[in-house]
Amino acid sequence: MPVLSVRGLSIDYLTRRGAVHAVRDVSFELEKSETLAIIGESGSGKTTLAVGLIRLSPRGTRVATGEILYTKDGMTSDIRKLDDDDLREYRWAECAMVFQAALNSFNPVITIWEQFLDTARAHGIKDKHRVRERSAELLDLVHLDARRVLPAFPHELSGGMKQRVLIALALMLEPQMLILDEPTTALDILTQRSIIDLLRQLRQRLGFSMIFISHDLSIAAELADRMITMYAGRVVERARVEDMFYRPRHPYSLGLLRAVPRVSGALGSVASIPGSPPDLIRLPKGCSYAPRCPYAIDACREAEPPLLKVDTPEHEAACIRWQHVAEVIGSKAPLPVAEKLA
Amino acid sequence: MCLVGESGCGKTTTGRLLAGLIRPTSGRLLYEGKDVWQTKGADLARFRRAVQLVHQDPYASLNPTRTVFQTLSAPLYRHKKARGGRQALAAVSELLERVDLTPPDNFVSKYPHQLSGGQRQRVSIARALTVDPKVIVADEAVSMVDVSIRISLLNLLLALGREFGVTIVLITHDLAVARYFARHGRIGVMYLGRVVELAETESLVSDPAHPYSAALIAAIPEADPEITRGKKRVELRSAEIPSLLDLPPGCTFHPRCPLSEAGLCDVKIPELLAIPGHREVACHVAVRERTAEPAAATA
Amino acid sequence: MSTAILARPTLGQRVAGPMVATFEFLRLLATRPIGLAGFVGIVFFIFLAFVAPLFVPLRNDPSLVDIYQAPSAAHPLGTDFQGRDVLNQIVYGGRDILTVAILAALVSTFIAISIGSVAATVGGRLDTAILAITDVTLTLPKLILLIAVAAILRPTSFVFLAVILGLLQWSSLLRQVRSQVLSLKERDYVEAARSLDLGLFHIVFREILPTMRSYIVIHFILAMTEAMYAQVFIIFLGLVPVSGSNWGIMLYFAQGQGALFYKDSIWYILSPILAVSLVQLSLVSFAGALEDIFNPRLRGA
Questions:
Q1: What is the CATH number of the domain that holds C169?
Q2: A312-317 and A234-240 beta bridge pairing
Q3: Residue C16: in which H helix or E strand, if any?
Q4: pLDDT exceeds 80 at position A118
Q5: Distances from the Cα of C146 to the Cαs of C230, C233, C237, in angstroms?
Q6: ipTM more than 0.95?
Q7: Chain A: closest CA distance from residue C289 (Å)
Q8: Which end of chain B has fewer surrounding CB within 10 Å, N or C?
Q9: The whole model's pTM is what?
Q10: Sequence-ordered strand ranges (E) for A160-214
């Protein structure tokens, strides 16, 4: 039984120019203790999807269709139908979110201890001693010294320490599920490394499920069990992490993988994807990646391809040319991309 | 040439220093053998033109109220490279073609907000080219554009370097980008305002001499699950980065360094010294070991 | 090759450019009903004040039989203490008020922008000195000062009055211009202009001030409202030698001649008040809509 099951979710933004179809017909499932990475670039709808999952979407957003089913102890409820009290309960106690922007969203004039206290109070924990014990426990979990960190003000902490505090706060009510939006983007490399290692440890110890939202393939390579690639609001490929990295079947996933140079090992062939993402208000007919795709044929421009089962039952790609992509990768033929490494 | 370092290590300041926009506290900046800050007026202006900066943020580096044509034609008029609208338009179109914004007619009358991040960055590069610079300092020029188009921007910069003999200094925190960009050049690694290692790219990546470079390379998450999950870690003694206002004595890396030796590293500031393999490193231990080995072998 | 973007366009294009811009402006304005209403109001009052007097004959002769009449077909807004037509006075009474408001706003905006941007760009001691003077001016009680100045100088011409008003209200805009320029100075594109050696003139007038255009226009409109109030207020107090007729003078006489005590004179008293309020309302709501319209992100979107 999956912890979270999203079915046919579509989210629009209403703007002056018309509705922006930010998320279109997205479905996925998250199993217990599993880590899922949602990868996409700006405008792919990944952040809209993430805030949609905990119903924190800004005004002017319309959830057009779909359901978000959450299961705990055999009870399943639709997040979209929760009332305000249940929703608040769900947001922290079941599904906590760590935002990308949150590093700067600490209230600068209150101490970390007061942050913990406020969060605990908001969820009905009144006993100060219990909060004190719990926060010490949590900070210990993220390898921070509670005696030094709790009385500190946010500006006294480095970026990496703040990220750890945020993770500790998110874990306060022992959620089953953690959503992390670009958890390491603003941090430098050595700190990134320590946060990644920390998340891996915590997941092993506490057994929660995680969803990463990122544009960064390497964090998926580090931590994910399964991956989803999003393009123009849709899921274009869904696979186990090894399949996605070594046997991608959607040309966009392949393009993205080829666009990132490596530090270790051979440099290999690296190339950008030509063109830019489509206008989400006026989407092209057919596959929205077709204008940038080197393998596109006429049929691609006629109808939007559904997610098709490829290779294994756990691997799906929204591309009618997936077999061709498989051949290209298998044959190691020179790649038909616009810019190749000189 | 690439400069690599983490946020707050002084990369951006170095970039602005190179472009002659800020005055150094000490030391000299030499251009064609002359100290830039000893020159005045026209000479300083000439130097500033010779070194152009491409900024990190494609949303802030172009004036939102000016069209691409206005942005690119102003320096052309100012430096008498074009007289009259027709000449300017021809020159601007040529520049746009040079940075692969084709056809130029589609771009000349656009405002920055009508362009994508990558396109804006190309306009910034074209603007730098208006004054025929000798050096372009690209400060994190690709880190704020989408992953899928970074390489094409890097390729553009490389091509400009080749075709027009412009030296490009790329400043980045991303070692993978640096490795790609400077694959036939050198990388300088910065830590807390100092260059700690300077070496040819492949030798740096495969065999870093400075313990900080080694830690950096071992820590980088990579877009390949097998490589990245199998990486050997360099254990640091501390995760905390000292403040630039209160630098530790001796080697600034010694509080975190796994090789640190008491009485040496915490006292004496290491200089950037040449070691075998056409490289320079600022580390007492690395210099001793790397220069001692061949000496011992010959002895 | 398209030539529409050349720096020196032909005459035809020079006309076509602003026309396209005007059309675009009206299209955006049409999507904001309150701003549109303000715009219509402003056009109406400008027409009323500057154009209508050319067509409507001035009827300024006292008529003792018509004193304090209620509105009627002959006198739609009634008559005043000398039996003169109120509507006629409203038509003739706007020109001076609006002229002074515009002039005063021009004076204060000009002072604020020129000195404010110089202070920010040059910096150092000059900046400190300008800032100190500005702060002192900011803390002065303006209305009281205005009364004192008007009582001493007895401004006889409206241009003089406008200059006095302008000199009293530049300080807050100057401070804002200064801080805006200070922050814009640090922008990457200004740094790029410095490194391209484009010169101080270009940096101030081409890079920095245009980005503040919307801000300046909006402030100009708000400065007009401020100048109007102050002006009507001191005329009403009788501190400006009264001659001719304007909305302020109408109020002065209405009060002075005891119009309050006549039952049919309510429209006589209300008319100038309404005229002033409606102009103000139009200006403020138009300024509000401009805020959106000037945002370059919304243009052409």
A1: 1.10.3720.10
A2: antiparallel
A3: helix C11-30
A4: yes
A5: 8, 10, 12
A6: no
A7: 15
A8: C
A9: 0.77
A10: 177-181, 209-214
